[in-house]
């Protein structure tokens, strides 16, 4: 209120006078106009309707009792019919209406989340993606450097184990689209009655390591081979320059193949792995049978030689014995060769220099760096998803908020239309 | 008027009410609120509806609704009187909308006051003049007058209920009561 605003001053004076009259119950203002307003205010107050005593007592009793159900009402009938539980969950009128905007907002928030979650979907264990999933059907299992499998992920020979799965070596031999090792030529037949199968196994590994770690990895390849009772059949290593790398041909006892492969895979990042198996049981059985026959013939020849009557007959038997002896020697060699091929798996390791350069730059040896990189990638991916979700949610939430804000005034306006 | 139904005649009374209904026995606290506001709530509702039976129904409905929603009261959003009158006003307006065709605000009001035996002729005449002037106001003006003089609310509380500022309520109230005064002179 200010002196230069007589209108506002008059209003303030009159309002104060009215409140004074209402408070004191008397109209005693000095100004006639203000006093007249005071009298009018008192008249309006005095003319206010008064409640009926009976109604007041009845309502007062209900208030004291906490508004129990009134006899004859729907609620009372429901209670008398044993519907107390339903009444206990009775929602006040208008509660649902109030929940509508909130439900719209929540629904708007949840819908995109569900959609995004559905679109992204959980890992399905297929070979799609970075090769971290299981892949029982594929023989060649390429693995990119620094991907989910990463370094130290030992191949598991049990197919379907969920890790870098390798098919059963006794499965169909020679399968694979790009075998690094040509499988031995298939033999004729498969000796179905033989229970102890003889399998030739060939494994190819491509390991990738920083150029300055090739020598160390090469030494460890030899060490791992020796530790598992195998031997290095041939090796070559070249360090420095563009052609840095190495090749190893190993023989590893078949019964140590699985742990040996696990250790070899742990030496560096596995870029690819190929393997093949060939059942040579029939060849083995055939050679053994022929050897037994040859030995039996030799024993027979020796007996006949002892009983030979003439020199000519004895000479003929000796020539035959020489032939049989040669055959026996050949069969022994064949069996020995077969035993070597089945008792020892052929493992070829190709050692490659990684394109990342040295280990200081984040090569295969930088496990902590790899972990940090993976964590960063994961965070980036998560952030990307969150940003997309937010891009969907924000407009929807804004619309829901606007609707919610507009609902109140709209309801008020509709309600107050009764006063118009 | 009985002693238990003493109607608040003072605007400032609403300012000394307890800030919370939740402490202690809720039913007792609500009973206190009821005892303090019932006559005013009824007077306000009856002033709006101009129908004794409907006013009783709506008043009872308003108190029951307030009782059921008593946990939703927040002291920071205004006094409890304003909260209760807001509920009563909504109930009365809903009733008005339902029965607008049958009992519009422009219709002849029912005589809701009971004349005292010693009611003097001059006072009765004065009351008739005021009523006639009130009939000349529109619904929103009558609502404001009812909140102020029948409900006994402060301008700030009325502002809370109507969604206006206290000063806007004062200005509108002054304009309305001035209009009423002029109508009384006609």
Explain what you see:
The complex is a heterodimer of chains A (420) and B (186). Mean pLDDT of chain A is 75; it is low at 1-6, 82-94, 121-187 and 360-364. Chain A is α+β, with helices and mostly antiparallel strands. A five-stranded mixed beta sheet of chain A has the order 2-3-5-1-4. Chain A has three domains: 1-65, no CATH class; 93-121 and 367-409, no CATH class; 135-365, no CATH class. Chain A has helices at residues 6-24, 32-46, 53-64, 74-80, 84-88, 95-120, 214-227, 257-265, 281-307, 311-343, 367-416, and strands at residues 199-209, 231-238, 245-253, 269-279, 344-353. Chain A has eleven helices and five strands, in the order ααααααβαββαβααβα. The radius of gyration of chain B is 17 Å and the shape is globular. Chain B has 186 residues and is mainly α. Chain B has helices at 26-49, 52-68, 80-98, 121-135, 139-150, 155-162, 166-185. In chain B, 40% of the residues are buried. Chain B is built from seven helices and no strands. Chain B has one domain (11-104, 119-185): Rna Polymerase Sigma Factor, Chain: A. In chain B, helix 1 (26-49) crosses helix 3 (80-98) and helix 4 (121-135) crosses helix 7 (166-185). At the A-B interface, helix 1, helix 2, helix 3 and helix 11 of A face helix 1, helix 2, helix 3, helix 4 and helix 5 of B.
Instruction: Give helix and strand order of chain A, one letter per element, not per position.
Output: HHHHHHEHEEHEHHEH
- The CATH superfamily of chain B bears the name RNA polymerase sigma factor, region 2, helix turn helix motif
> From the coordinates shown, what is the CATH architecture of chain B?
Orthogonal Bundle
Major sheet description of chain B: none
**What portion of residues of chain A belong to β-strands?**
5-15%
Query: Helix coverage percent of residues of chain A?
Result: 40-55%
Quaternary state of this entry equals heterodimer
Low-confidence stretches of chain B: 1-23, 103-108
Mean pLDDT of chain A: 75
Which regions of chain A have little confidence, pLDDT < 50, spanning 5+ residues? 1-6, 82-94, 121-187, 360-364
Give Rg of chain A in angstroms.
47 Å
- State the distance separating the first and last CA atoms of chain A: 32 Å
Helix content of chain B: 55-70%
What structural category arises from helix and sheet content of chain A? alpha+beta
Rg over CA atoms of chain B: 17 Å
CATH topology of chain B: Rna Polymerase Sigma Factor, Chain: A
Number of domains of chain A: 3
Shape of chain A: rod-shaped
Strand content of chain B: under 5%
Count of discrete alpha- or pi-helical segments spanning 4 or more residues of chain A: 11
Largest sheet of chain A: 5 strands, mixed
